[in-house]
Amino acid sequence: MSKTQIQAARDGTVTPEMERVAERENRDPEYVREQVAAGQAVIPANRHHDALDPMIIGREFATKVNANIGNSETTSDLETELEKLHTAVHYGADTVMDLGTGSDLDEIREAHIDHSPVPIGTVPLYEAVKQAGSPEDITTDLLLEIIEKQAEQGVDYMTIHAGILAEHLPLTDGRKTGIVSRGGSIMAKWMEEHGEQNPLYQVFPEICEIFAEHDVTFSLGDSLRPGSLADACDEAQYAELDTLGELTRVGWDHGVQVMVEGPGHVPMHKVAENVERQQDVCDGAPFYVLGPLVTDIAPGYDHITSAIGAAMAAQAGAAMLCYVTPKEHLGLPEEDDVRDGLAAYRIAAHAADVGNERPGARDWDDALSEARYNFDWREQFDLALDPDRARSFHDQTLPGDNYKEARFCSMCGAEFCSMRIDQDAREDGEMEAIEGEDGTDLEASPAAAVNRPPVGTHRSGDLPPMADHEGDEPLEEPSDD
Question: Is the CATH code 3.20.20.540 the one for domain 5-356?
Answer without folding.
Answer: yes
